Amino acid sequence: MVPVRTYWASETAAVLDLEGEVTLERQRRIWWLANLFRELPGLREVVPGMNNLTIEVDPLATDGARLLEDLEDGWQRSVAADTAVRQVEIPVHYGGGAGADLDVVAAHAGLSRAQVIERHTGALYTVFFLGFLPGFAYLGGMDPRLATPRRREPRLEVPAGSVAIGGSQTAVYPVASPGGWQVIGRTDTRLFDIERDPPALLRPGDTVRFFDAGSGS
């Protein structure tokens, strides 16, 4: 049985939180539960996270007294339903000026740069959830050998399109921002575009493959 707790994070935000390891099966159950609650009236927002789900209620439109109980009951009934899967391919320029931390990851893993690239492009990733920045997709499924701690001192600005590793996950920075992940490459694919509908390229449940587009300049 998965240890679960529910609580109010604020007067209007209820949270379902799972303890333990993040897995694809758990995330699929969270997505299923999120879709269930999106069908209910009186809710402002339903936000699936990593091992958690947050429900923002409109206190004038709904009675939130039973919401925590409904969340826990919903989790117990949830299923790891298959979602409509899109596969997105993202070209990456690895190393050089585009991937200043490729050598750091290689040294930590005890691999050559070519082996890091081979392992990074060889995995099929799943978007676990979006957060941190608009369109920032946390990707599960990375080869465990590539797991590398974040930088001790975050950069003040990481360019948009930077492909990076932080702990056991990999991601693409959708916009320029401060960040502490290890940058191993860069893509010209736009992960977030305000002119696009929807603006974020990726959504939870999508699968992603990276492929080597040549060394970074």
Q: What value does the Rg take, in angstroms? A: 19 Å
Structural class: alpha+beta
- Mean pLDDT equals 91
Strand order of the largest sheet: 7-6-13-5-12-9-10
Please state the overall shape, judged from the principal axes of the Cα atoms.
elongated
SSE topology sketch:
Elements: E1 4-8, E2 13-18, H1 24-38, E3 43-48, E4 52-57, H2 67-77, E5 87-94, H3 102-109, H4 113-122, E6 125-130, E7 137-140, E8 155-158, E9 162-166, E10 169-172, E11 177-179, E12 182-186, E13 207-215
Parallel strand pairs: 5-13
Antiparallel strand pairs: 1-2, 2-4, 3-4, 5-12, 6-7, 6-13, 8-11, 9-10, 9-12
Kindly describe this structure.
20% of the residues lie in helices and 33% in strands. The protein is α+β, with helices and mostly antiparallel strands and 217 residues long. It has two domains: 4-77, Gyrase A, domain 2 (2-Layer Sandwich); 87-215, Beta Barrel (Cyclophilin), CATH 2.40.100.10. It has a seven-stranded mixed sheet. A four-stranded antiparallel sheet has the order 1-2-4-3, covered by helices on one side. A two-stranded antiparallel ribbon has the order 8-11. A hairpin with a 4-residue loop joins strand 1 and strand 2 (13-18). The longest helix is centred in the first third of the chain and has 15 residues, at 24-38.
